[in-house]
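yo

u said u wanted the structure for the complex thing, so here. seqs first:
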Amino acid sequence: MSGLTGCGLSPPSSDTNGDATSIALGRELFFDQSLSADGTISCANCHVPSKSFTDGQGVSIGVRGVPGTRNAPDLSDATAYSTLFWDGRESELKVVALQAFTNPREMGLPDEAALLKQINTQERYARFAKGRPLDQSDIAGGLTQYLRSLPRQPTRYDRSIGEPSLLSMDERAGLALFAGKAACTECHLLAGDPVALTDQRFHHAGVGFEQIAGDVTALLGRLEQSTRTGQPLGELVLSEREIAELGRFAVTRRPPDLGAFRTPSLRNVARTAPYMHDGSVATLDKAVEREIYYRSLGRGRAVNLTVTEQAQLTAFLRALSTEN
Ligand code: HEC
Ligand code: HEC
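structre next:
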């Protein structure tokens, strides 16, 4: 444990009994497929622990085999973001923790009453009840504590900060490009302890946006209609692809936010293919190639990297991942 703390990585927060019970409840909920409309989907179907809490799909697939519109983010980063989801539509983990249960493109339960009933009638949750049925805040609290307890293991890059020889020559060359000529650190910051690899802001990528560029007025109408009927934004975003492509704009309605998405942290990036908000880029090599191209377009000056340099940059990104 002291090694972890030395790196600035927080150990699981299970100091008190209350926390330990809450984490255990959260873990039980996270893997429970019975809490979905067809009994086949739990949080862990889309946030698979062995895939760094992503699912290996382009876009996630919810109850009854119906796909959503977005790529599942790595939940071991969730506590490090200041806004949640690719469009930053929420900011509190305990709010987000409950949403998947009732989102029709995720677990599809009719409402929170159905969720609580399904939980409180199961024997396995009896040990968590405190002389009364479990309620919404127990569920949200348990899942939040569980997510907070996920250890953020140091990556080889984290460890190399005190010991540069842990990186190969190519990886070190890649690091120099990442922070230098390729200017990736403008958004994937190397600041923080452990390094955040995100600026917590929203940027255009060109990914997917060409598909809706002509339709923005009609989409704005659709967005307003949905707001008027009280449909949660997350339900609209995960069920309508064109709305999903509006990105941050669907939250702020500010024209500069059209097609902008949150900068993803690159921690564990080698383990979270496919890439981008819509999962449209299959491999890390292709994601790097795309980022070099689009980000230099955004700056209005081309970044030319040789084939070797591009491979070095990708090698460095692999060192930002834990081995398991
Ligand atoms: C059908 C697949 C699916 C299921 C089931 C699912 N999620 Fe997700 N989750 C996603 C996708 C896709 C996103 C990104 C959505 C977006 O950005 O609009 C996401 C986003 C999140 C986020 C925000 C992470 C971030 O980086 O901003 C949290 C937290 C989260 N899910 C927790 C959960 C919990 C807890 C459960 C179970 C109660 C759950 N998810 C069930 C697919 C799923
Ligand atoms: C202007 C800010 C910015 C700069 C500069 C930038 N990125 Fe990104 N990066 C983003 C955003 C935003 C996304 C998500 C885009 C999307 O999904 O639409 C992203 C996505 C990625 C992804 C996919 C990650 C995932 O989990 O899906 C990789 C890999 C990546 N960037 C690497 C790089 C590299 C390498 C560089 C330097 C050549 C770079 N980025 C420069 C903002 C930036």
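Residues 182-184, 186-188, 203, 205, 207, 261, 263-264, 266, 269, 272, 275-277, 287-288, 291-292, 295, 298, 313 surround heme C (ligand 2) (CB under 6 Å). The longest helix spans residues 284-299.
cya
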